[in-house]
Each structure stands twice: as C-alpha cells, then as structure tokens.
Design brief:
By secondary structure, the protein is mainly alpha-helical. The protein has 2 domains: 66 residues; 209 residues, MetI-like (MetI-like fold, Orthogonal Bundle), CATH 1.10.3720. 69% of the residues lie in helices and 4% in strands. Strands 1-2 form a two-stranded antiparallel sheet. The chain has a two-stranded antiparallel sheet with strand order 3-4. Helix 4 packs across helix 7 and helix 7 runs antiparallel to helix 10. The longest helix has 32 residues.
Length: 290
C-alpha cells in the first residue's frame, strides 16, 4: 500500500511535467502568432490579438523592410511559393514511395528466392543508415543527370527517407492478407498484377494510408537535403523559407515566424486527422505481422 501511495503522486508529477513540456512551446507559438509587434516578447496572452501576422506572410510586398533594434532589416518574402514547392515535392515523394514500396513489399511477402533475406537486411540497413551521409553522392548524381536544384530531384532523394520503412510496414501488412484470396482470383482469370490491384491493395488500404502520411510528413519537414540541393530562391521549400526570419542567428520577426510555423504544421495534422483511423490500423497491422 505504501508503494502505491508513493507511485501515484510521482506519476501525477511526471505527467504534469510532461504536459507542461509539450504545452509551453505550443502555447508560445500560438500566442506569438496572434500578438501585435509590441507584444510578441511578452509572456501573457496578447491584449490586442491580431491576424496581421498571418496576412503578412501571404501579402507582404517584396523588398519590405522592418525596424528591429534600430536597424532596418528586409522582411521575409511571402509563403506562397515555398508552400506550393513543398506540396509539389511532398506529393511526388508520396506517389513514388507508394509505387516503389508497394512493389518491394509485395515481392518480399509473396515470393521465395535465393538472396531474399539478404535484400530484406539491406532494406532494413538503409532505414537505419543516416541519410545525411548520402549527401555527397546524391549531389554528384543529381548534378550529372541535370536534376540538381530541381524540385523533382529533391523529391526523388526523399525516397532515401521514406522507402525503407514504408517497405517493411507494407510487407507486414501484406503478410496478414491470406494468399488464398489471390489464388482464387487468379483461378478466375486474373493475372498476378490484377490480383494485386483488385484484391490486395483494397484490403491493404489502412496500411497504404499510414505509409502515405508517414512519407508526406518526412518529405514536408526535410531540411537537410533541401538546404544542400536547392540553390534558387524560387525553388525554396518551407523549411528553408523559415530561415528568412533569422538574421545573424537572432529571430527578427517572431510574429510572422510563428504564423509560418503554425501553417507549416497544420497540413500534416489535418491530413492525419482526416484518416487517423486508417493510420492506426495500418501501423498496428504492420507492426504485428512480420
């Protein structure tokens, strides 16, 4: 009984600390995004909340200046182009990931051949391998094929993030689908590809949804590859665009920075909320089946 009396208060204390650890940064970002310029550094709730910061990141004129600590600094350009670029890159990365990982996972779950275990180990190694180590060879390859500083090239490189994990998750899901369903379909005249498209993929919809969200979030938030592989301002994505709010290592535009961060975080959150049921089902099935 004494242990229970000690354990419950400790759990309550650690739970409160964890909630504060999560809540305080979120509160600060939301509070700052709605605060006028004179209140951005105050800790309390803004007395005169405004939507001006959200408006400015969409309509601020190019070359506009702001006075900060007696110095005039250029204001970050609008978020429109980086937002479109990020959506474009993430969309291509998700599509390619779905295609490649589906074929690879189906191969690993349905066929037996020499070297299959070695390929599985290689894919797992590619997942745990730090992607930033691939920076130099990726840069050389993209330069040689004319895809350096191209959004399509960046999307292809993002497959180093997404394909290995997506392949293993879908493999686990495919293993949970009885082979007999495909065999019956092929007896009825379907080819292997038709059985995959008409039988396996509809049953694997929750796993495919989880893979799509996972791939989108990784591509959406990529900073490392985007910073190295994109040199043209017109091609910058949101993670690079956020750097415009920094000057000499200091945040010079906290209101617009907070508004940009909220909008950047809303897209994955909205997508997840829309299909969270399928994502949970896909993650559980992919983790249990091996």
């Amino acid at each position: 009984m004494q242990k229970g009396y000690v354990r419950k208060p400790l759990l309550a204390i650690f739970s409160i600390l964890l909630l504060l650890w999560i809540f305080i940064p979120v509160y600060w970002i939301i509070k700052t995004s709605f605060a006028p310029e004179v209140e951005v550094w105050s800790m309390g709730i803004p007395k005169n909340p405004t939507l001006q910061n959200f408006k400015d990141i969409f309509v601020v004129p190019r070359g506009a200046m702001a006075e900060v600590a007696g110095t005039y600094l250029s204001i970050s350009p609008t978020i429109v182009t980086p937002l479109i670029n990020t959506l474009f890159v993430a969309g291509i990365a998700v599509g390619l990931t779905m295609l490649v990982s589906t074929i690879a996972a189906y191969n690993l779950s349905r066929f037996s051949y020499k070297g299959k275990n070695l390929i599985s180990c290689y894919i797992l190694f590619a997942y745990v391998f730090p992607p930033f180590i691939l920076m130099v060879p990726m840069t050389i390859i993209l330069s040689n094929v004319g895809m350096f500083d191209k959004l399509t090239g960046l999307a292809v490189v993002h497959l180093a993030y997404t394909v290995p994990f997506a392949t293993f998750m879908l493999r686990g899901y495919f293993l949970g689908i009885p082979r007999e369903l495909e065999e019956v379909a092929m007896v009825d005249g379907c080819s292997r590809l038709q059985a995959l498209l008409k039988i396996v993929l509809p049953l694997a919809a929750p796993g495919l949804a989880a893979v799509a969200i996972f791939s989108f979030v990784l591509s959406w938030g990529d900073v490392i590859f985007s910073t190295v592989l994109l040199n043209t301002t017109e091609n910058y994505t949101l993670p690079i665009h956020i750097g415009f709010f920094l000057w000499g290592g200091e945040i010079v535009d906290p209101g617009r920075l907070a508004a940009t961060a909220i909008l950047a975080g809303m897209m994955p959150a909205v997508l997840y909320l829309g299909i969270q049921k399928f994502v949970r089902m896909g993650l559980v099935a992919g983790a249990v089946k091996g």
